[in-house]
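Translate sequence into structure tokens.
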Amino acid sequence: MVDESRTERSVFVYQTNSGGEAHEVVSILDSEVVFEYGLCPEAILGILRPVATGGRRITPERFQENPAFVQYLRTLLSDHVYDLDGLRRAAQDEGDGHLYLIDGRTPDPDGEVPAADIIGAVQAESGVLVPGSYQHNPNHRLLTQHGFFELPAELEAILQTDLRRRCAQPR
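Result follows.
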């Protein structure tokens, strides 16, 4: 298990229209970026299902993950997880085995971690991370009762920068 410093981020809800239907979508991109470039599919974390009671809270029951973002996140992590200083240090300590990237929102990272809070794993051999060994946990959830996913600060910075770049590209 690797515990890196985490960075909390804001999430934003935007009203969109698709096929004549209004939807509320959730993104980590702020309105300045969205109004200038729009929302590329990878920048949408998910869609909020309407609620009959009029509640506006974002809850796991209302939130439907966007498969395009989930795939994008998997690829981004598999490309950059090897760059984490803390993960490389943990590999040196571990020697041989698997190191788990734990979601920063988990209540007890040193205790029993729910499957929804294990982002993925990478293999270490002789104290070195094995290139190409990252495996994303299909049980990881972007939103649980403990909030939205929280990445190590290094990965969060890469995510934010890359999403801004993607959305700024002409489509």
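Note: The CA atoms of residues 60 and 107 lie 17 Å apart.
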